[in-house]
Amino acid sequence: MPTLKKIRDTMKKQKINGEIMEQMDFEADCNNPHNITSLIDKMDKLLTKEQCLSIMEKQGCCKGGQRDKDCKAFALEHIDKPFSEKLALMSSIQYMMSPCLNDDGTFTITFGGYQNGVHTGKTTCSCGSIKKLKQPFSISPTYCGCCAGHFLYHYQNALGVKLKLKEINSSPLNTNGEKPCKFTFEVLG
Ligand SMILES: [Zn+2]
Ligand SMILES: [Zn+2]
Fold it and tell me: How far is the C-alpha of 170 from the C-alpha of 184, rounded, in Å?
């Protein structure tokens, strides 16, 4: 889950203008998901899309544990393979999905999301606090950049490259749980 403090630290590192920083409420209670979503609404309003993406790609949940180990082991095992071959093999790691290589060299990951509401068949991001929200709701898809940050972290380790979040293609957050979390990453080398 992206915490307000972590977002603040990232924004400081990225030298976001002080006047904008002053308009953000970083001290609010993180246990209330609405405090995070209202901060993200402000980011959408005050920052460029590119700034929002570069802040959110630094968030991301579940960076430790088994997935971390699996991705680092994958990196060693496939170190000599070309990038496209490694990318195709990513689906062999549990929960890393099946990335799709695009013609322009970027690649796209589709994550079905977390089933939120057994009876509704709706999905949402698997971020801790978002899971608690009751359907129906609509919040900024920028929040979905936290999911993207999760994949960015693990994919960088597994593939041995630097990545950049280029686009949040779709999200369950603003589509009434109908669309998956879908992101496109650029390979920086
Ligand atoms: Zn998250
Ligand atoms: Zn998401």
Answer: 10
Q: Ligand 2 centroid vs 85 CA: distance in angstroms?
A: 26
Segment 27-53, tens digit of pLDDT:
998 888 889 999 999 999 999 999 999
Q: What is the pTM of this model?
A: 0.94
Give the closest ligand to the alpha carbon of residue 177.
2
Query: Exposed, middle or buried by CB within 10 Å (0-12, 13-18, 19+), for 126?
Result: buried
**How far is ligand 2, taken at its centre, from the CA of residue 150, in Å?**
10
Span 61-99, pLDDT tens digits: 999 999 999 999 999 999 999 999 999 999 999 999 999
Distance, in Å, from the CA atom of 111 to the CA atom of 170, rounded to the nearest integer, reads 10
Buried b (16+ CB within 10 A) or exposed e, 27-36: eeebeebebb
User: Domain extents for the chain?
Assistant: 4-57, 65-187
Q: Please count the other Cβ atoms lying within 10 Å of the Cβ belonging to residue 124.
A: 23
